[in-house]
Amino acid sequence: MIDTHAHLYDEYFIQQWDVAYAEMIQAGIEEVWLPNCDQASWEALWNLYLSNSDFCKPMLGLHPTYVKEDFEQQLAFFEKELQSKKVLAIGEIGLDYYWDVSFKSQQIAAFEIQCHWALEHHLWIDVHCRKAYADLLAILKKKEFKDVTGIIHCFSGDAREANTLVDLGFTLGIGGVITYKNANLYQDIQHVPLTHLVLETDAPYLSPVPYRGKPNSPAYLGLIAQKLADYREINVSELIEITSQNARALKAYSSFD
Predict the structure, then answer these.
(1) Which SUPFAM superfamilies match (predicted)?
(2) Which CATH class is domain 2-253?
(3) Is 257 a residue whose pLDDT tops 90?
């Protein structure tokens, strides 16, 4: 299985890396893709990749909730890093209006700049979107971004938005929320072809049932796969094969070894 989104460079994992890594391998995890948050998180992410390059794959980007007054300086730093380092994707980037909209225009500007990076370097984007799907779709529908593709991490939109994103060529990341009793996620993605879904944990966040409220881990990815397979009424091994192949196609798109 491929966990397409987990923050393994978080101190929670670093402090117990050997144990956590052994649990992930035992659970059948073959790769974990690392989304970046900001300049402060980049060194830990990159160092984890260098020491575990067969297992961890790096992304580079400025997360929308970290877009503040200094976002242009942070983007300048990442643009320079992008010239010298090979990464899997630009991410996680996007729009988040849930907590604060004080930097809404800056979030939009940062997102569009980073989408251009993806086009220039033939990379896909890993998108964080919360309470901002109208603006996200408006941007992705622009002619200049018609060739941008990638994953909508932790998809939380409605059925119309899911179908629109798939029509635009995006894949939806499905995580622990699919296991929550009162979540409407499956109803909103039930008509999305399996060829447009990938699995993720967002560890150490958004743990699936029965670990909800505790730190998440890629070792729990099988629970997410099983729940989605149950909804689709197919064998879990078939679902894992399809979603893993979808992930490998994105990896090939970026020509990442």
Answers:
(1) Metallo-dependent hydrolases
(2) alpha beta
(3) no
* Cα-to-chain-centroid distance, residue 227: 19
* pLDDT tens digits, 206-238: 999 999 999 999 999 999 999 999 999 999 999
Domain boundaries, the chain: 2-253
The answer to whether 136 and 129 are in contact (CB under 8 A) is yes
